[in-house]
Amino acid sequence: MTRSLKKGPYVDAKLVKKVGARKSSAGAIKTWARASQIAPEFVGYTFAVHTGKSFEDVFVTEDMVGHRLGEFASTTKFIRHGGKMQKEAEMAAKQQEIAAAQTAKAATEAKKS
């Protein structure tokens, strides 16, 4: 649900203060304010956004203005889907890789002799 227009965008006051105090965009600005919207003053700065476990660096560009900081720092990490079909696909890929390595090795040995 969007925020009411009469309220205006939510930009964390501490974050605005930190950006205003910075003279250059060197180094990341640490923040836990994932819900804060990206203001035009933030363009060119790097923010270290907290993901719940660690901080993820987010470099702000013009296209990001109006979005939330949390949108660019994922809190979950995709590993892979499991199951029998996935294991079979991984094994087939591994066999193809081994076969390709063996043919490359045979080709280099043939050139030497």
TrEMBL record:
It comes from the Bacteria. The keyword Translocase does not apply. GO terms for cellular component: cytoplasm; small ribosomal subunit. GO terms for biological process: ribosomal small subunit assembly; translation. Keywords: Coiled coil, Ribonucleoprotein, Ribosomal protein, RNA-binding, rRNA-binding. Protein S19 forms a complex with S13 that binds strongly to the 16S ribosomal RNA. This is Small ribosomal subunit protein uS19. The lineage of its organism: Bacteria, Candidatus Kaiseribacteriota. The gene is rpsS.
